[in-house]
Design brief:
Elements lengths: L6 E8 L3 H18 L2 E2 L7 E10 L3 H9 L6 E5 L1 E5 L4 E5 L5 H16 L13 E5 L13 E5 L1 E6 L1 E3 L2 E3 L2 E6 L4
Antiparallel strand pairs: 1-3, 1-9, 2-7, 4-8, 5-6, 6-7, 9-12, 10-11
Length: about 180
């Protein structure tokens, strides 16, 4: 077995349903048309909760156990903001108001993973969905209509090498309690 096949690059995320993905993919295409760069394909759109990084595959069970101990509640997320981070050339979609249930879910997951020895990023959690990478400039005049998303689960996904880039297979899903 090669060293690459014994390791995986992993992250926990919220995975949008088809309607939300399609709306965001349209935003990504519109943004790319005004700012250049590379639009995120619809099947790769997600909102990261916790970036794990590269770990031994043998540790996936510990990640799954930690996530299984998290008790989050379902919530509605309204994506209504388009932003641009010049320092890393990212155009992103986000929410003007972060639901408290999303903040609690991210904090609970981070704490559960830290207890298993998985360190998170030092910066504050900033929920967003990357629409365009390598943007040459801020997008102009993109009509962003609020898009409601009923978040009912979170997932563990892998960033797996594939011809022409990466793919994001979902390894496991955890439901959020009804609210």
């Amino acid at each position: 077995m090669s060293a690459e096949s014994t390791r995986a690059r992993l992250f926990f995320a919220l995975w949008p349903d088809r309607g939300v993905r399609d709306a965001l993919a349209a935003w990504a295409q519109a943004a790319q048309a005004t700012c250049g760069g590379r639009a995120t394909p619809a099947d790769k759109l997600h909102l990261t909760l916790f970036f794990v990084g590269t770990v031994e595959r043998a540790r996936i069970a510990a990640l799954e156990a930690a996530a299984g101990a998290v008790r989050g509640e379902a919530f509605d997320l309204t994506l209504d903001t388009l932003g641009h981070w010049r320092h890393n050339r990212i155009v992103w979609a986000g929410a003007s108001r972060c639901p408290p249930a999303l903040e609690r879910l991210a904090q609970s997951l981070s704490a559960a993973l830290a207890a298993q020895g998985f360190a998170g990023e030092a910066r504050a959690y900033a929920p967003h969905m990357t629409l365009v990478r390598n943007a040459e400039r801020r997008p102009h005049a993109i009509g962003v209509l609020p898009r409601a998303w009923g978040v009912r689960e979170f997932v563990l996904a892998e960033s797996a090498p594939a011809p022409g880039g990466v793919r994001y297979p979902v390894l496991r899903r955890w439901p959020l309690a009804a609210h």
